[in-house]
Amino acid sequence: MDSTTLLSITFLLAGVALFGVAYAAWQRARATAEAARISGGRILLNIEPTTILTHEEPSDVRMKKMADICASVGRRSFGEELDYSVASIGRIDKIIQRGWGTSAQQPSGDTITAIGAYIGEVLARNSRGRWVSDLTYVDPATLLFVPRNVAPEEDVIRVSPFMMVRQKFSKMHGYDLAAAFTATEQKLKELNAA
By CB neighbour count within 10 A (0-12 exposed, 13-18 middle, 19+ buried), where does 82 fall? Predict the structure, then answer.
């Protein structure tokens, strides 16, 4: 067998192998698309929309994804519609009461982060607040408010929705999230920052 024939056979076998890999990837993509079609797009952890969190993404993107996770869990596990309205903060309070009110079990850090991200996202959507990174596990982000008619470097207000959630879990029956949220909104308006 000459070298040209051997080279042709090698390329033919490589082509067949690449075709097999491409066909397997295509089949996997088809199966994923079919599962998405059947489940209405809910593949990963039954979360709508499917989210993948990465630590390299901006805080606002990561917090929005965590808020979506909270909204999905609220709907699926507790039957509460979390629609990012101010009224939904009261539903978050009910979820916490039902999930942890009579339990001695403390919530995980991820639970506090997801609930705090939801509360923060409601505040951001209903005000001029913007997510900024805090780079800590306790407060992975805060909402930044700059009062109107003030230079940004002079008077900046930071609000931690995670602190509200930690307060709720530490004083389960003595702390009302909806009231705390409303008080925060009111104070921001008084400071001309909302």
Answer: buried
* pLDDT tier at 83, thresholds 50, 70, 90: very high
pTM (2 d.p.): 0.69
Please check whether residue 164 is in contact with residue 116, taking contact to mean a CB–CB distance below 8 angstroms. yes
Question: Which pLDDT band, with edges at 50, 70 and 90, does 12 fall under?
Answer: low
Q: CA 57 to CA 101: how far, in whole Å? A: 34
Strand partners, 130: 144
Rounded CA separation 163/182 (Å): 15
The region that residue 132 occupies, defined by phi over 0 for left and psi between -120 and 50 for alpha, beta otherwise, is beta
- Backbone φ and ψ of 142, nearest 5°: -135, 165
Percentage of residues in the chain with pLDDT exceeding 70? 69
Q: Amino acid letter at 192?
A: N
| Block residue for tokens 């609220």 | 74
Do the beta carbons of residue 97 and residue 134 sit within 8 Å? no
Angstrom distance (rounded) from CA 141 to CA 130: 10
190: tokens are 């008084």
